[in-house]
Amino acid sequence: MNQKELKELIEFLIEKDIAEFELERGDVKVRVKRGAAAVLQVAAPQVAPVLAAPMAAAAGVPAAPPSSAQSPAAPATSVAETTEAAEEAGLHLISSPIVGTFYESPSPGAPAFVKVGDMVEVGQVLCIIEAMKLMNEIESDFAGEIVKRHVSNGQPVEYSQPLFAVRGK
Description:
Blueprint: H1 3-15, E1 20-25, E2 28-33, E3 39-43, E4 50-52, H2 75-88, E5 91-95, E6 100-103, E7 119-120, E8 125-131, E9 134-139, E10 144-149, E11 156-157, E12 162-168
Antiparallel strand pairs: 1-2, 2-3, 3-4, 5-12, 6-8, 6-11, 7-10, 8-9, 10-12
């Protein structure tokens, strides 16, 4: 099961408001449980990463504590509220295209790709989201000024969770 299939599966489960789901296909097992302890576990031979909110290891290591900035219990509601607030303020939201861990810089100790107040262009790298040990550069799809960053460095993010609010030029 590749990343695109996982993304489509997660979208479908959210759309249909399914709280718990389990799938076995050959050597791959996927278990999704939404709610206060939302976890997506993927297990395959020699593959033990887990996509989660919060992230946890497939071996059952306890998950990282959720950020106080956003409760993982109701991400769909907070995304909708954030989107409505941004539209009212005339802002464009740049959202996470994948589930993973948000990083503001290319490496620890390096300066952040962008900070509040910076002007960005379409295609400019804003952050990295790590998913399944892959570092995915997230580029701006809108030109303007960064007015708000919705997540903190190292925080787990959900699919379509707002990352940045940008005011057009």
